[in-house]
Design goal:
The chain is an all-alpha fold. It has six helices and no strands.
């Protein structure tokens, strides 16, 4: 069964929420693995060769989080690359709500990577513009 656009948007919203929360705490919860898997499946469902590196990096991130040891020197570069690739992928969705969410996810991934690399707090804004916050 094919996923609807609104399902993809819900998955994007939950990825943004996860990344703007307490990432260390989230890695200890069972939901992180499921979230990353949904994200991987959404990208694979798109059947777009441009998403291949995103899938590879997400699988690497999922495996690293599943290993039980969290190494910022592994996680930060993966998140930075995911942020850059996600931002580039924002031009693919035809639905403006989905495109906005993909753009926001790219920004959040990049900010979280910077935060991890610097070791200091960086403001990570996971809020979507009000106009795009509905799941339609």
């Amino acid at each position: 069964m094919e996923k609807s656009e609104s399902q993809h948007q819900v998955h994007l919203d939950s990825a943004i929420k996860l990344l703007t929360g307490d990432l260390a705490q989230e890695t200890e919860r069972a939901g992180l693995d499921n979230q990353l898997q949904r994200w991987i499946e959404d990208l694979k469902d798109a059947n777009n060769p441009a998403f291949h590196q995103l899938v590879v990096d997400l699988q690497a991130l999922k495996a690293h989080f599943g290993s039980g040891t969290l190494d910022v020197n592994v996680i930060a570069p993966l998140l930075a690359r995911l942020g850059a690739q996600t931002t580039l992928a924002a031009n693919f969705p035809e639905n403006v709500n989905t495109a906005t969410r993909v753009t926001k996810l790219g920004e959040v991934l990049t900010a979280v990577a910077q935060q991890l690399q610097s070791g200091g707090p960086i403001e990570v804004d996971g809020n979507l513009p009000q106009d795009y916050s509905s799941h339609s």
